[in-house]
Amino acid sequence: MTAQKGSPEGTQVLERDGVVVVQLYGEIDAANAPGVRQQLHAALSNSSAGLVVDLTGVAYLDSRGIQFLFELGERLTMRRLPIRFVVPETSVIRRLLLLTHIDDVIPLDLTSDAAVAQILGGK
Amino acid sequence: MSVSRILIVDDDPALLQALPETLRLHLEGVVVETTHSAASALKQIAAIDYDAIVTDIKMPGMDGLALLAQIRVLRPDTPTLLITGHGERDLTLQSLRGGAYDFIQKPIDRDHLIASLRRAIQVRQLKRQVEAQRAALAAHATQLEQIVQTRTVELREAVDRIHALTEVATSIHAARGVGQVLEAIAEAAYRLAGAEVALAGFFRYRPDATAGDHWCDAAVAPQEAALRFREASVTPFFAPVLELRGSLRAEDLPPRLLRGVAESPLRISSYLAVPIQARGGQTLGAIVLGNATGHRFEDIQEQIEGLARQAAVALENAVLYEHEHGIAETLQRSLLPERLPEIPGIHLAARYLPGLSEAVGGDWYDVLELDSGQVGLVMGDVAGRGVWAASIMGQLRNALRAYALDNVPPASIGDRLNRFIDSGAMATLFYLVYDPHRGVAHYISFGHLPPLVIGPDGSADFLGIRNGSPPLGTLLTTPCRENSVSVAPGSTFLLYTDGLVEVKGKAIDEGLARLKDAVTHAYGGDLNQLLDQILATVLDGGTAGDDVAILALQASPVDPRRLRIQVPALPSSLPKVRYRLRQWLEAASVASEDIHEILVASGEACGNVVAHAYGPADGVVQLNAELTDGRVGISLVVRDAGQWRPTGSFNPTRGTLLMRALMDSVDVVPGPNGTKVQMWRRLRGESNS
Q1: What DSSP letter does each residue of B44-113 carry, written as one string?
Q2: Which of A113, B2, B135, B602 has its CA at a distance of 20 to 30 angstroms from the CA of residue B112?
Q3: Neighboring chain A residues of B597 at a CB cutoff of 8 Å
Q4: How far is B684 from chain A, CA to nearest CA, in Å?
Q5: Which are the contacts of B314, defined by CB distance < 8 A and separation ≥ 6?
Q6: ipTM exceeding 0.90?
């Protein structure tokens, strides 16, 4: 597979049974992490049942991007909103995320269907 | 009728006594004088212009014939009658030959004498009248001639004045900008007035500003006088115009102001100042004449006032012109890139040379950093000059930027610009998108001259434009079509506007050939040197008539073994480094999972430099990558030129942790000139993609 290059950031927001699914694309680094954070918070409402961040399309993530993901997990946990990340086996950032032990804080799923099902089932 | 005077010369006293009486009796209104010798007669004849002379031939001393000869010299027009003895035929003949009017034989026949005298007097008087008339005619002719001469001189002066005024008007109105207009006015005043010095001043600021040169732009004529003014102030010459009203002469000035004029380097005694007034009545400036001696400028004042009226119009236009020129220049300059972006793997250089024309042209160029490391090059030329052209140029530039940054393909951008351009505006445009990753360039051309492509071997050729469009704004219906060309690493694109190759009166092909020739012979140095050499050769040391814009892009050749990148230490540089490094790793067939982790590790190292190494001043970050030990591993060195402080605002431990986790070895080496991060990693294998 050729890694997806190009556009630094891209987001697509879906809602499935009250669960907000945000797909992120491209590269997340120091330059655009604040913008991505804003878009994620804008996608959430008080009635949201949970958040799934689909990182399948992310081609690059640096320590600033990882820090941002940690912060996101902490915030949502404080708000008692369940959050899960989607990272397929083939993702170039999977090893990076495992290296930082983010899965200790936020559970990882292989598909967004699985992630949504986990949130709805855990309710 | 006037009195006729007759002189009788005879040595016979009896005759002298009798004859006058007889003549007075028979000739009306005659005065008869007598004398007894030729000698005394001559004295009287010299003194008095007689109407007739009667003389005896035989006299002691000088005889009558000798006297006649003298009279003919002295009074050639006076009829002379000679009295001869009876039968003296020879004497008679001699006397007639000698120019006598008549001869009278003794004894004197009274009637004959009187008749002859009367005739003689009449002839004499007629001659006199004719003479007088001729003299009057001659005098009249002379007078006429003088009148004609005077009138001719006056006419010539009038013609000269008209010529001078026409020339003045032409030179004043041909001048651009306040400085040139003032010079023309000063020169005109100097020539019209024949003054020793003439000054023209323009009051830049409000006339009530405090004295000092700063408020007055001035020109001085002639040149010699201007030189003498170099050190001295022109203020005293204009100060009276600001304090008083109307045209001023030396005698109108209070002593304080007069002193200022008189103590100038020119020692002026005669002074005339005429204000230059705008239609609104405000004083724009003044024309001042000065003479060290004599001439008081009374006769010239009216003409100088006429000149001042012309000067007012010209100055107002000049101010408008400068204003517009300033706006256009500012506008145009602000639209050209202040500096070209620094893109790893790509060299860029550009030049902009304003042409001879004073109005700003509509040439522009632009460099756009697009997604995926692509680079957009823009070269355009709006037809026309001045503010209007500059504003059209700004609209096109911004529209193109917006579309291009939105990833609109070149041909679609072309179509949109063609719909977007103001009606009535026309522009040529060349837009090229270079994709270094695929080694290809896509481009569109709207009637623009073809860029020159210089191959890695130095060969130069114009880029083929098969799918060209007419200039923007000329034809709305034709869809724009894209061209493409493959680009070998090391190739150079040279974009330019027509000012570089268009020489008046010569075919464009000649200019293009010159450019190609110049490029072929100049190539070899760095890109900036190349542009300087091209400009020097093509423009032949002179200034271009038209504006010249030139933009060059060189795609660096890729070294499969090593990569060197240097970029400004700015957050926006990080994706560029990443892109370039990824491109190189892919070209070196490094596996994709290796690539990602190498990118993250080097990104952390570079990010640390950007975040910590520098203060507000500009700095750079350097990345060197090298495949080592026959592709077993990769060595990365990230360097800065400042003091790297390993603590900072965002979680540096995680960054360092990531680097150490992703690479087999990480060494941070602080040095006096900066910090060096050395990393090494074993590669997993060949890429299978």
Answers
A1: HHHH---SEEEEES--SSS-HHHHHHHHHHH-TTS-EEEEE-TT-HHHHHHHHHTT-SEEEETTT-HHHH
A2: B2
A3: 95-96
A4: 14
A5: B172, B173, B175, B181, B184, B185
A6: no
